[in-house]
Structures are given as C-alpha cells and as structure tokens.
Amino acid sequence: MSTSTSHQSPRDDQPRPIVAITGLNGYIATHVAIKFLHEGWDIKGSVRSSKSAGQILGDEKHVLAPYVKAGRVGVVEVPDLGGDLGELLEDVQAVAHIAAPLPIKSNPTWEEFKTPTIAGTLNLLEHANKSKSIKSITVMSSFGAMINLAPVDQQWNKVYNEHDWNPYDEDLCSSIDPASNEMAPHIWYMASKKYLEFAVNHWVEENKPAWPVAVFCPPMVFRAALNSSTPDDLNNFVAASGHITHLIKGKNAPIPPEYSLVMVDPRDVATAFFNAVERKKAGRYALAGHSYTYRRFVDTFRRLRPDLEEYFAAGDPAAAELPPDGPHGEKAWTIDASKSIKELGLQCE
C-alpha cells in the first residue's frame, strides 16, 4: 500500500528530489522528515503496518498532515525490511535508514535479537545498489556502538570519538540472559549496533557502491515527540523521550539511571542526515550536544511549571545537575563531535 505523491516543485519546473525514510512513524524519523521537507525534498516513508500508515495519513493532528494533504509525503507498508523494497526505493535520490527492526519473538536469543537489524540493512543496501537514481545512503546507528558502560569513575577524562567501539562481543552477548540480567537488553542493543556497523562497513568494502554511506552515532536524543498526537502515545515510547515520562509520574516516582551523560537534539540529528546527503559525505559520525542529568531535567520542569510540581519526580535533592568531577578534578567522559562539526556543519544545541 502506498500513497501517490506529487513531486513538482512550485518554485520551478524541476521535480523535487525524494528521500526514502525507513520507519517514518518513529521519533527521530519524523524530525528527519520535517528537515527534508523544509529543504524542498519530498518523502517516501516505510512503516510496518496499515495501522502505522493510518496514523500518518489519516490523523489531521499529525505533524506531517499538511504535507500529506499537499501530496509531498507518501507511505509504503514494509512489514519486513528483509523483503522486497522495490516500491520504497523506486525513483528516490537518497535513503535515510532509521528504522530499527524488532525481534519477532517476545523472548529472543541474542542471535534473534541482532539479526533483523543487520539483515534488513544489508537487504536495503543490496536493493539500493540496483537503483539508478540513488545518490546517497545515510544510516542510523547509536553512540551505544561506541561507549563502554563501565562506571564514570572507571573512565575519567575519556573522550569518545569515531575510533571507539564498545567492548561487548558475541561470546558475552550469547552468555547473558535477559530473564536474569536486567542489563542484557541494553548490552544487546549496543552490541547489535556495533555489529550492524561492522556489516555495513564490510558490505561497502566488498561492493564499492557508486554512492556514499554515512553512519550516525547519536547519544540520548531529547526534544518534542513530533510523532505523537496524544498524551497516550507517550506511554508507548521506547525512544529517549519515553524516559521523560518516568520523570513526570509524581514526586515518589524513581528517577531512572542515566546510561549516557551527553544528549543531542533530534533537529541536529535531522540536520546531520540532510547535510550528509547534500554534501555526499561518507563515514562514521559521532553526534553530541551538551551534558545532562535527569536531576537537571526535573529541576528545570519545576522552575518552568511550579504549578505542576506534584507530578515531577523529587529524586535526591543533593544530586548534581551535571555530571560531577572526580576527587582530583577528573572530568566525566564526553564525546568529541568535531568531525560532524567540520564535515557536516553541525552546531548542536
């Protein structure tokens, strides 16, 4: 199923370029779509189901609704990124691969967890390699592919960059059980992103495509969830914005641990995708904004909306608003995003 789109630019006689965005109904993908639309591109997005398609095409409150009405956003149902992607990639000039396929089983093994992500991406690359119109591929990875989850005091002054990889290997991932290890899903996610990048790099080296492939590694991504139309939607989020809901469930609600000390705005992630396409950049890019703690978030909530204080988690009043320094002035780990600043022109907020 798909919607027809009109790709004629109102400014001239040239048709607007089209970007295929996988997982168009997602949190970051929606911001990426808005960026491309504002820059004069049209969108052809994939979703897994007719329900997800309807949320984009049939909801007048959806942020993409005006563009759907104008014929600038089309949707293709792709239940499995490992299947036929011909309709999705037909006549597009770029691809923003953002979808993160989920395991089919509710209690997957490590192999079942990682395979959909890697297989779907490789299938997309194979389909794209048959296209005569595609000029650029961009892929979403994660800072999780770079970072070691060791405590902050075990990695003072560490500066992560594009040369870093997390230490979680196949043997470790195969040996841990999510039923008995609460960190297993986090480690599996991080390892799957690392092995996804390995697979993409190997494919590029073997196939030498005519177009560049850029891969982005953002840390926690926080801002407005444009893909939600109602407050109830937030309860179903698994993205970073879903963490925010834990901070607004009342004074006694526990503040979750921070698995990252650095955040980035999804609008900056969207700019990275767009600029990499426009500038035809290839390679791995660390993205980063500023440091944060959830303590700082709830304090900001209280300052901005004191009338809603009863809804905001109290947490530990003595907790620091920013990652504290070590006993001898050591600094908490951070991210060197100078490559994305230099090559993609990012100035993250």
Structural write-up:
- This protein has 349 residues and is of the alpha/beta class.
- The protein folds into two domains: 18-225 and 264-288 and 333-344, Rossmann fold; 226-259 and 292-331, no CATH class.
- Helix content is 34%, strand content 12%.
- The chain is built from twelve helices and eleven strands.
- The protein has helices at residues 27-38, 50-57, 65-69, 86-89, 110-128, 170-175, 184-207, 231-234, 240-245, 266-279, 294-304, 338-344, and strands spanning 18-22, 42-47, 73-77, 94-97, 136-140, 159-160, 213-217, 220-221, 263-264, 283-286, 334-335.
- It has a seven-stranded parallel β-sheet with strand order 3-2-1-4-5-7-10, with helices on both faces.
- Strand 4 (94-97), helix 5 (110-128) and strand 5 (136-140) form a beta-alpha-beta unit.
- Helix 5 (110-128) packs parallel to helix 7 (184-207).
- The longest helix has 24 residues, at 184-207.
- It starts with 17 loop residues before the first strand and ends in a 5-residue tail after the last helix.
- The relative contact order is 0.13.
- The mean pLDDT is 90.
Profile the largest sheet. Answer: 7 strands, parallel
N-to-C CA distance: 38 Å
Strand content: 5-15%
The whole-number mean of residue pLDDT values reads 90
SS-based structural class? alpha/beta
Q: So how many helices?
A: 12
- CATH H-tier superfamily of the largest domain: NAD(P)-binding Rossmann-like Domain
CATH topology label of the largest domain: Rossmann fold
Organism: Kwoniella heveanensis BCC8398
InterPro entries: FAR_NAD-bd, NAD(P)-bd_dom_sf, NAD(P)_dehydrat-like
Keywords: Oxidoreductase
Family: Belongs to the NAD(P)-dependent epimerase/dehydratase family. Dihydroflavonol-4-reductase subfamily.
